[in-house]
Write the structure tokens for this entry.
Amino acid sequence: GAVVSQHPSWVICKSGTSVKIECRSLDFQATTMFWYRQFPKQSLMLMATSNEGSKATYEQGVEKDKFLINHASLTLSTLTVTSAHPEDSSFYICSASKYEQYFGPGTRLTVT
Amino acid sequence: AQSVTQLDSQVPVFEEAPVELRCNYSSSVSVYLFWYVQYPNQGLQLLLKYLSGSTLVESINGFEAEFNKSQTSFHLRKPSVHISDTAEYFCAVRVSGYSTLTFGKGTMLLVSP
């Protein structure tokens, strides 16, 4: 139990376009979901905390207008990277909380 | 605020040798402690956790960690590593009643034949 999926697993997009990443808790309901960003050979950086039905709480330094988070249901949260630039290229990982955090497999975003 | 320190960014070891990955934390309140493992291009998998009770916790694949409150440490150990243990290992803490995790910078365990 406690499986979290992410879609897509990897995506390549052109600079200036937007890309949406989905995070789903497959076998449990998660009131809280988290979005992380990970640069190569570095730790996870928490971007935002998302609670179902309310606005996400963004960490300091994370642009909320650039990284749009929607947590429409207890099993789905989405991260939309708007007007993507090459420096947004990274590995994005979500997690869903049910007592503990359970992590998705990550999404590799490459902006060309 | 909490912080987690993993002093070793990389630990090379030969197969079947023992290994210890160090983790120290700082917190003014009680915390829960976790070790996660990340294989290349994958998300994090929970390896083991300490919430309460026995200070020695074990995982199903032979890893163990001991919570030492006086030394504020939660080192991860395995008596005999396998090639397949090669991965990035992250130590993390969470304050009781909160869901946010604070991660260390990670330790890359490199197991060679």
